[in-house]
Amino acid sequence: MSTPSQNLALLDISTLAPLIEKREVSPVEAVRACLDRIERHNSRYRAYISIYPEPALAAARLAESEIAAGGYRGPLHGIPLAVKDLFQVEGMERTCGSRIPVPPGPEATSVTRLKAAGAIILGMLNLHEFAFGPTGINPHHGTARNPWNPERVCGGSSSGSGGAVAGFMTAGALGTDTGGSIRIPSSLCGVVGMKQTYGLASRHGIYPLSHQFDHGGPIARSVRDAALLLEAISGEDPNDPTTLGARRLDALPVLEGGMEGIRIGVPTNFFFDALHPETEACVKDAIARMETLGAELVALPLPFMDDVAWAWEAIALAEAYRVHAHHLETQAELLAPDVRARLLRAPEFSAPDFLKAGEIRRGVREAMAGVMERVDLLAAPSTPIPAVSIEHGTIQVNGKTVDGPRELGRFSRLACFTGQPAISVPCGFTAEGLPVGLQLIGPMFGDALVLRAAHAFEQAAGLAPLHPPMEEG
User: Fold this and answer.
1) Running DSSP on this structure, what letter comes out for residue 87?
2) Domain that includes residue 33, residue range
3) Distance CA 92, CA 88 (A)
4) Cβ(156)–Cβ(136) below 8 Å
5) Is 157 part of the annotated catalytic residue set?
6) Is 115 marked active-site?
7) pTM as predicted
8) 370 domain residue, yes or no
9) Which of 4, 61, 69, 417 has its CA 20 to 30 A from that of 216?
């Protein structure tokens, strides 16, 4: 088994899994390493809302005995993971980051599939209340703090998922993404976050926000790890009709395919407007690097982008209001002020507005299908700004105060609006040491291609896994 000097919590899934398979490391040791790190750091960084040490250790002992008996299930067997406190996990309390009691439901299909692969769930991760905000600021359970700078946010809404993975308090995590809530914290925390194609993985057992836009997907320290997690949770689920006909993702065989011959579209409008200058520099350097790896760059306009923000909001607010109407009627005072205010904006949009937004969505999806006939992927920043202050939710850009809640989701809504797969992968740092994310958007069910290109860039950039300036041990 492992030596005392080996810090197993610092190993990513792809490094840890072969050690567990060869019985050089016990799942019990791996789980204890994460639990020890959680005990040391969670009181400050607030990545977890709840932790379940004894069930995790019991599952680890079972995994150890299964592997010893020749029953190794695959690369997630014995791996410590955690999930956003929006997923139902059997035996664990789901709060959705709120003070409002949430009735328990059936275990999320994605959690059940991770367990079937042998993964061990450590606990429930922090989030922006009811997943309805891009900062992760949470007045109820404390705000998850960014491991790169604890005075900055992790990004929302999957703040604890991003922070726990970046801070080595879990080997990987699940988050959700309705308008960017996987990719935003991944970008701000310097980790990899994948929003898969809509319908590739089940949302059953995940507390809803917007039926048309909700996704549940992986946050990890490397593209390979994200692929392993997404493969495990993907596929058809009779409990979620949107997955009808979905096949299990098989990305690993093509992961090493490289960048040669991939046509990458670089938007000439919107995605490079009003950017933090260091974010712009990092992303443009990343795109140039992909060209040196053999990609063909194609500059192209996306003339429909001005319509996306309004239409996304019209649909998302209407559907979120439907989910939370009872909470607003009976327990509005328990909601965080920003979440309550956002939900109360829903009546600003009329029924004709909702129908018009649906028409816009259909038009944008058709237009994007045409774009994806010209290119294989789109490349853009994941967020227009790096992590903002927890205290006031803003950041200075070119001498001006920029509002985080307004800006952070600006570039991530498109892929949720169309349902296309999109990934955020680290591509550099600001002068203050804050991570910057590159976003790659692919065609519908082109998830394997997105992962292949992201992996090729990641390997060439040499940035994963990143180690934030937290004290080690």
Assistant:
1) B
2) 14-461
3) 8
4) yes
5) yes
6) no
7) 0.97
8) yes
9) 61
